[in-house]
Please model this.
Amino acid sequence: MKFAILVFPGSSCDVDMHRAVHDVLGEEASYVWHTDKEAEDLSNFDAVLVPGGASYGDYLRPGALAKGSKAMASLCAFAASGKPVLGVGNGFQILTEAHLLPGALLQNKGLKFKSGTTKLSVQNADSLFTAEYEQGEDITIPFAHQYGNYYVDEETLADMKANNQIAFTYADHQDQGSTDKIAGVLNKEGNVLGMMPLPERAVEEVLGHVDGLRLFKSILKRVE
Amino acid sequence: MKKVNVYVTLRESVVDPQGTAAEQALHNMGYEEVKSVRIGKLIELEIDGAESEIESRVDEMCKELLVNRVIEDYRFEIEEA
Model:
């Protein structure tokens, strides 16, 4: 399987993503710089990973300025084709700003940058990204963010619940004020996932946690 | 040339922890008459182009990039630069 890791100026978790899918899972993975020729048409890839970091220095709003990149049109086309798109951390913020996912990320309720590990509860174990988890299972995943406070209005939230779009919720107190303690969100079609916690940092015993690995294995299982 | 001031504020339904913190600080300083603080941002644009189009173009810019309408409201005023 061929992964694209879409890199913007200020992306910083791209190497972790590459390590997870290439070094640990042994799949093909390419860094795709957002202005490269390759970014204009992503259809040769099987999945696109939008890594975390602080694209464009988080200026204006985290994830907002990536919208001005030409790669955004091809990312939207890729998502519309039904292939998997995973955005993590700032990648999640980019996907909400691009309206590929509902809601938006606000500054943490305590106004501080927070990092550590969090317990997530798997709310939808049927999706392309979560099939390797058990429904209702608690998993341990690292996080590191200042804008991790997921906001969505009540009407959209009701829609999301009806469509089973909530992939993960926080099972501890690390939600930073997120609506309904939501940590990870799917689009209606189920082929785009965004989440603030960082599964690519929990893929090897040496990292302390391995629960993130099954997310990437789920993608492989469904696509292959 | 026109100058456009775009005022971006958090939507009323969105909690503003920065505003709450500033409100608390004002109270601590003795300004107890303050009932609410909401913090937003001001974006200043200088724009060339036909006057008749500025309003609709700026509105589009707000919707496309400058404002995230999931969490923010906006208004703008156009003046001579």
The mean pLDDT of chain A is 97.
